[in-house]
């Protein structure tokens, strides 16, 4: 494990160092240092606009995934209803199949409904795998909370909103942060869905 981490940091350090070099051939260290490659990339590829769109999409996907996924995970963890296993299977399908498999028909539907080629279309497409991901991560965190804690809060007059904000949210915060962090990384790495739904005029780093 230590050897793997050492090699990983060595590769990252090599890439970062080479990005500041004027020329690097036949030596351990660059012959000179410069930031012009960053300036050229910033101006030539309009990185300001690209990064802005990327951060907007990632923020919306992370926020909506949490707002939808956490309550859905609570319902699936605490409630029994007919067809629960089927619902769980449907939620897991986007995580079990390659993104390109459901990405093409999803993009077709978004183009037909007019959502594709816009930020809302990209966000909707990325929510398909990220919401089930939040649900999958959060269910074990919710199941490990004793239901007696919730019952005690209701006995003392807490409604559903107060129960969630003052009792469940502090207990679930580690799981929520872990789930949202994983969603952020997954969204940045989900090139296929963004490519299929963004349209030819959109530019993101997602």
Number of helices: 9
User: Uncertain runs with pLDDT below 50, 5 residues or more?
Assistant: none
Please count the beta strands (DSSP E, at least 2 residues each). 0
Shape: extended
Task: Give the helix proportion (percent range).
Answer: over 70%
Strand content: under 5%
CATH superfamily of the largest domain: MetI-like
Membrane topology: Multi-pass membrane protein
Protein name: ABC transporter permease
Family: Belongs to the binding-protein-dependent transport system permease family.
Transmembrane segments: 50-74, 86-111, 123-142, 163-185
Per-chain topology:
Blueprint: H1 2-19, H2 36-44, H3 47-78, H4 84-96, H5 99-113, H6 119-143, H7 147-155, H8 160-189, H9 191-198
Helix pairs in contact: 3-6, 3-8, 4-6, 5-9, 6-8, 6-9, 7-8
What would you note in describing this structure?
Residues 51-206 form the ABC transmembrane type-1 domain. The structure is a single chain. The chain is mainly α and 206 residues long. 23% of the residues are buried. The protein contains nine helices and no strands. It folds into two domains: 1-44, no CATH class; 46-198, Orthogonal Bundle (MetI-like fold), CATH 1.10.3720.10. Helix 6 crosses helix 8 (160-189) and helix 6 runs antiparallel to helix 9 (191-198). It is 77% helix and 0% strand.
Task: Summarize this structure as a short list of keywords or feature phrases.
77% helix; mainly alpha
Task: Briefly characterize the structure.
This protein is mostly helical.
């Amino acid at each position: 494990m230590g050897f793997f981490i050492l090699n990983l940091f060595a590769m990252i350090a090599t890439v970062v160092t080479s990005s500041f070099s004027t020329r690097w051939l036949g030596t351990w260290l660059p012959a000179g240092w410069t930031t012009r490659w960053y300036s050229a990339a910033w101006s030539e590829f309009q990185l300001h606009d690209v990064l802005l769109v990327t951060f907007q999409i990632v923020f919306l996907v992370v926020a909506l995934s949490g707002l939808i996924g956490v309550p859905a995970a609570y319902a699936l963890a605490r409630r029994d209803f007919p067809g629960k296993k089927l619902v769980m299977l449907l939620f897991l399908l986007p995580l079990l199949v390659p993104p390109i498999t459901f990405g093409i028909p999803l993009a077709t539907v978004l183009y037909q409904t007019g959502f594709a080629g816009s930020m809302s279309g990209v966000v909707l497409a990325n929510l398909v795998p990220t919401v089930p991901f939040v649900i999958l991560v959060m269910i074990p965190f919710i199941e490990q909370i004793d239901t007696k804690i919730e019952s005690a809060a209701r006995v003392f007059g807490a409604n559903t909103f107060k129960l969630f904000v003052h009792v469940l949210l502090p207990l679930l915060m580690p799981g929520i942060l872990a789930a949202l962090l994983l969603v952020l990384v997954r969204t940045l790495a989900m090139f296929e869905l963004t490519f299929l739904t963004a349209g030819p005029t959109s530019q993101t780093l997602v």
